[in-house]
Structure formats: C-alpha cells, structure tokens
Write a structure and sequence with these properties.
Two copies of one chain form a homodimer. Chain A is built from 16 helices and ten strands. With about 350 residues, chain A is an alpha/beta fold. In chain A, helix 2 runs antiparallel to helix 9 and helix 4 runs parallel beside helix 8 (about 155-170). The longest helix of chain A has 17 residues, at about 50-70. The interface between A and B is large, with 70 and 70 residues.
C-alpha cells in the first residue's frame, strides 16, 4: 500500500488538528441533533461499535453517565445477530459508532433497535453508508478518507463528535473542547519524548496500560493500537480491575504505561501505579497531571475531553514501535480497512 | 498458605458439583426474589462487579438481553466513585455481584443506585457483608468459604445463581440447569485432556482466548484465571472484536484457545478459528459442539448455561499451568483474597 512503512498513518495523525477544528465548526448541526434527541426524551443510552470505535463508545458511556446522569450500556451485537434477541427499547437512544458504516452486525443491530422502538443515531465517517441509511439520525464526523488500516483521525473525530453531542444534550456549548485542536497539535510535536520510549517497548514481551474514568477508553485504544500495529501483547485494564487479579502479571519483565490526566482520573490511578512500581515494573506515564511525574506530557484540557488529546502520544508510539520492529503499521497482517462481522 | 501449591484451588474446584446442586435446591428462594423484582417492573438492568465477578456480570448481561429482551449494561463504578455521577435510575434493576461483598466501590455504587431510585440486588457469598446490608434484595450463593485467591466455585455459583434469577423473571423453572452439576463433575474428570495442553501453554508467550455470545464471558474468565495464576499474558476477545484489529497478533507464536459450545455461539466462532489456523496459529478448542473438532470435550447442556460447565477445563488448565511454571495458584503474587478498590 505504501512505500515508506507508516507513511499513511503518520499523514492521517497529522490531519487531526484540522479534522477536529472542522467538527467544532459544526456546532449548529450538533445542536439540531441534540434538539431532535431531546424531543424523544431518552432515559437510557445503548452504544454499539467494534474495534477502535468500540473504545470511542466506551468513552461516550462515561460521558452519558457523568454528564447526563443517565444509565448507559455497550450493546452486545451478538445478542441480536447470534441469538435473535428482540429487546424492548422504548425510551432508548441507540448510538452506533462506525468509521465505515459497513459492518453487518452494526447495521442489523441498528435495524433491530429501531424496530424495537429506540431512537437510532449513527456516528460515522460515511454519511452515505448502509449504517447511516438505516439510522434515523446521522452525524458525519467528516474526517476524510482514512487509508491506513489503523484508525487514528477517525478515532479522535468520533470522540470529539460524541462529546459535543452529549454536551449539547445537557445544553452545553462545547466550550470545554475549544482548546482541543491546539492541544492535539502540541501532542503531535512530542515525538522526541515518544521516541525515548520506543526501545523499551520494542524489547518488552508484555505491556500493560492502565487508567481510570474517562481515560480508561484511552488505555483500551492504546492497547488495541499497539496490538494491531506493533504486534505487541498489550493489555488494558481499569486501575480497579487491575488490582482485582491481573496485578499478578506485573513485574520487572512487564512495561506499564499509566495515563494520568489532570483531574479525578489522574488522582485515582496514581496509587495503582505506585503499586506497580513496588512490584518492580518499569512504569511510564502519559498525561497532563501537574502533581505526578509524567514522561510524555500533553497540554491540560478539561478532563472530559482529555481522551481526545492523550491518545495522540500512543498513536505515535504505536506507529514508531511498529516500524522499529520491522512491520508496516499502515497494513497490519490479517487486516483490511473495513471488517465485515456478523 | 498451602503446603502443596494449588491444593486449595483444586479442593475448591472439586466442590463445584455440590455447591451447584445446593443452589438448584433453592429454587423457591429464587422464585420469591423474582416475584419481588417483578413487582418493581424494571425496564433496564445494570450490573456492577470487579474481577471474576465482572465476568459473571457479563454473562448475566447476555442472559438479560436474550432471555428477557431487556436492555442491560455493565456499570462503571468510577462514574459514581470518581466523578460523583448521580444518575436517575427509576425502573432500573441494579445487580452487584461480589464474592466478598466488601469492595468499597461496589458498596458505594449500590448506595448511590438505591438513592437514585433503582431496585438493588446483591449476589454474594456473604449475606452478612456490607454490600448485602446496603442492598434491598440479596441472593446468597452459599458456596462456603473460598480460601484460594483465584475464584473458582464462587464464579460458577454466581453464574448459576444469575441464570436462575433471570430465568425465574421470565417464569422459568430452571430446568435447563438441572444437568449442570453432573456435567461439571464430568468436566472435572477431563484432567488428562487438560494435562496434554499444559506443556504448550507453559511455553507460549501469549495466549488468546476467543468465543461469541454467552461463552464470551468464559473467554474473559479463562484469560483472567491464566493471567492471575500462571502469569501468562492471556487475552480474551469476542470473535467479532478479534477480527477488528487484534487478529494482527495471531501467528505461529500465539496459542489460540476457542470455546465452541453446541449451539449458535459455537457456530459463530468456527470461522474465526479457521482464520486463526490460516494465519499459522496453534488452535485448541474447549466445548461441546458435535460438528467441530474439540480438544477438551465437555457434556452438552442448554447453551444458556454452558458457561457454567465450559469454564471448568480452564480452571484446571490455569491451576496446572501455574504449578508447571513453578507458581502457587492459591496465592498469586500481589493479590489478597479481598480486594478493596474505591
């Protein structure tokens, strides 16, 4: 696909500030969407997605719970596609998140949700896709064609779109997100801090990425990116879940990466990272916390939008570790850009 | 803790048939509980748990979606404990699943859920625990003291309890589960088939466990057990999620374990395992499917209760791989029996 391995991915990462700015410029579209959702008065939000978009959905779940005070869940598409469940979904807002809008399980789940009484919303990079066609509401993230298999600009575009939609549902104006494009541009400039982590990460057999709260979605996306581009066994655990079992894995032979934003999520993860250090692990940190030692520092933004910024160093890290290990992050083994699962 | 490593865990695994039989004998308690839930008429179910109990909660989520046709979600305790979210939970059944009933985040989440209007149910091995005390409804899984850190009998007891509760909510009599204790006893006898997998699993750097539908919870619990007892980097992915990225990890150096029950979940996972074989992975299978090659065969039971049976070979496998690697599965490094997270 590419001559220089990782060239496509690097180019698409670099587009993120402008993609995100364009989304912020479409606040009136977001407001109109939120008004239509408001008329339906949902009481519960279900999110359905796969791959990187599933991590964006996880982020949105926290937003819905914290900012809207509404219960939310991640739908299991196989309940519908494998077991033909037909749940009763009156008062449910069903949000499908998909870059391509082509995966049959998401399309089938959306059709089933609509027939079950839900209000359906597609957040997608293709407003002409079958998923968009089956959804009552559509938000086009407008990230432009993404050619690298590993999602980067579409992931951050999904995050910001979901934040603006949820924020608008509580009559917000999206102002917390205004500094995000600049903070992302700044994060893209942290390449030398990122480079300093590549040798250790290329050599380790296992990486473990941990965070709490909003940043847990970042940990999941960072792990997925390292798995798919660098073939590195990278795990993501919430800080609390880590202490309930997987901490047994942690030792001198495991690289631990902690995400430490300024705010409650950063405060909550710090004792977990201390525990990993006591067990001999090499712990590195990414984030904006002013009270913790940070290896790759990003600019502080409002904590609820920090995941849009803090994933960027992990994109860089994945791309560079992949290349350092002799792979091509633009076209990982066994993957195509659009995955069709049923 | 023990003289012979793994002695406690082996003993507790062996108690499972009688623990499960005792739960089946308490159908009248289950029916009473379901009647009280029925009077509340929930429209959504939220589940909160940590560690192995979180995998039991994942299983229950599928049960609620498929058997009750009701939307369900896994609660993120940190929304409440870290960000102080106070969601509106009228019409919500909030189920906390916890062996010990002592984890502060689950207790706090339960209190917050009750104050927000939810009906709260604790499924726990300690009916005198603080979690039980804060819950309006309690189901005591009655598994007896579990001394090994790695949960075994309390996990299968939670699964069966949750099945019977959900089944009773649809006026079921639990009859699908009657053969489960015998099938578990039979699975405990498959030690020689399990032993044949131990050398490969002790030698591999990465294991990947995959399934679809109900059995996805089994994959998650199997991976957690291998991580915590054998310090083996073991991943769990739903078959669909695997194809959306992590498949890049699969190759000759990765051990793939697939769960193939008789039924729809087994049919859905088979093409995913074929794809892993094409990529050169050594694929081994656990389950009851009559149409697939199975390495560790368990007795077929109704698909919705198959996870209670099919996890047993993975318990044996974890315990033996742990001992083969020179660890003590009864007391993994860095873990205590009761984990207190906030």
């Amino acid at each position: 696909v590419t001559v220089v391995p990782g060239h496509l991915m690097a180019g698409e990462m670099g587009e993120q500030p402008s993609v995100l700015s364009n989304i912020l410029d479409r606040q009136s579209v977001v407001r109109d969407l939120a008004r239509r959702i408001g008329r339906y008065s949902p009481r519960f939000v279900l999110l359905a997605a796969r791959g990187s978009s599933d991590n964006a959905a996880l982020y949105a779940k926290y937003l819905v719970e914290v900012l809207l005070g509404m219960p939310a869940g991640l739908a299991s598409p196989s309940s519908i596609t494998t077991y033909h469940a037909r749940p009763s979904l009156a008062d449910v807002l069903f949000i499908a998140v998909s870059q391509s809008g082509f995966s049959p399980d998401l399309i089938d789940s959306t059709v089933a949700a609509r027939e079950a009484g839900a209000m359906t919303l597609a957040v997608t990079n293709d407003a002409e896709s079958p998923l968009a066609g089956e959804s009552q509401l559509v938000f086009d993230i407008g990230a432009g064609k993404e050619a690298a298999v590993a999602a980067t600009k579409t992931y951050t575009a999904e995050l910001l779109s979901l934040f603006l939609i949820v924020d608008s549902m509580r009559d917000g104006t999206g102002e917390e997100a205004r500094t995000v494009p600049d903070a992302v541009a700044d994060a893209l400039d942290q390449a030398s801090a990122v480079e300093s982590l590549v040798p250790d990460l290329s050599a380790t057999n296992v990486a473990l990425i941990t965070a709490r709260g909003y940043s847990y979605a970042t940990a999941c996306e960072a792990a997925l990116k390292l798995v798919e581009t660098a073939r590195l066994p990278a795990f993501s655990y919430s800080g609390a879940d880590l202490l309930h079992g997987p901490i047994a894995l942690v030792g001198a032979d495991v690289a631990v990466l902690g995400i430490v934003p300024e705010g409650q999520g950063g405060v909550a993860i710090s004792p977990v990272l201390d525990r990993c250090r006591e067990l001999g692990a090499c712990v590195r940190t990414v984030g904006s916390s002013r009270s913790a030692a940070i290896d790759i520092r990003v600019r502080p933004v409002a904590e609820e939008v920090a995941p849009v910024v803090e994933v960027v160093p992990f994109q860089l890290l994945s791309q560079r570790t992949s290349v350092a290990k002799g792979f091509n992050p633009d076209a990982p083994q066994g993957l195509r850009k659009i995955t069709l699962t049923t």
